[in-house]
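S.,

Sequence below, as promised.
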Amino acid sequence: MIPEIKFSNLVMRKILLLLPFFLCFGQWNLMAQTYAIIIKGGHVIDPLNNIDKVTDIAISDGKIMLVAENIDLEKGLQVVDAKGLYVTPGLIDIHSHNFWGTEPDHAYENGNLALPPDGFTFRNGVTTVVDAGSSGWRTFPTFKAQTIDQSQTRVLAFLNIVGEGMRGSYEQNTMDMDPHMAAVIAKRYKDLIVGYKVAHFEGHEWTPVDHAVEASKQADGIPLMIDFGGSNPPLSIEELFLKHLRPGDIFTHCFGQLGGREYIVDLLTQKVKPFVWEARKRGIYFDVGYGGISFAYSQAIPAAKEGFFPNSISTDIHVGSMNNAMKDMLTIMSKFLAMGMDLKSVIRASTANPAKEINRPELGNLTVGTDADVAILNLREGKFGLFDYTGYKLAASKKLECEMTIRAGKIVYDLNGIANPVYPPKVVIERNQRAQKSQTH
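The prediction came back faster than expected:
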């Protein structure tokens, strides 16, 4: 039986007088904790800001607030123990296919070959994807409403020069390649559309490329991403680089070796062709765009031996590639590490470089005031077999894996519970809700 506790009127008056003090003290104690998240003791690699050292990062209200050594742990509502791990800007995958849907004959355009982004990004440290031409000017509004507006991942897009987008045989319809309408939609959604995509065209003509260039001229010069499709005989990539593309345009699937396409490495000399070096000097960007069969070591290894590494690393992730040799962003990054690309360059090709290619300088770095998109990676040691679609395998002793992903200041993936506490206190949730509400208004 619980004894009854009685207070005199004097005691009750004192308690009531002191109650506001205790409440204020508790509130002050919470306010003294300046930051929502402190990432402690990680090796920060931020190529844009030339940071490559062990230091701390503080985050509040969805932004990077401070990058400095010895940030006071008491000022963090959540503290992430990143000792022994690499802390990088959130990874940017500029070649993905996310216009998923239920139409069985639509391929990557509202079809069953594309993937909803959130299920495959955060577990790989990816915070931004760029859909590579799944939608065209006619179908982009559906893609925006269905996927972009519903995703936690930041989803941007290259607009297909074909109005219908990547809907199988529709991609061969030159009559649906309308530069004017493509420019209208790109300008209407300029916060989301970063360029144009030419892909999968099998004709021996330059119509898709030239129409995309014309659309770009009408839309403030946004870049092109070129998947050079296939033709018989193959179209000349020297002519593509030097007569059609402009500085800032992107050649994806750059290490592909498929019939119907010219390769960048000469198979006889095992050297990168001279005009490819010239194109790079001219300002053409070379993107991996790994895909299902669009990357081969027979091209990548000879190029790597000459020091010809990609400007940007990307997945070309879709249903057909994710369970094949490609797997995910971190597997591809690990392959380039195994081919001799240093870690800082691999991070640059997955953060600052793709941000530059899509003209989004606010992304891919940890500058104070930018959105707090952060990847925390482990470089695990062991025995790994990194193979391509032909079956050629590299033995590797190191492989990247993701420990944590933070998107806009919120922990969206934590592999091993390295945040303390694992979930943020109620005050952080309420603060984020207030911040989101003020942004919407």
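Confidence is low (pLDDT under 50) at residues 1-8, 14-31.

Coffee later?
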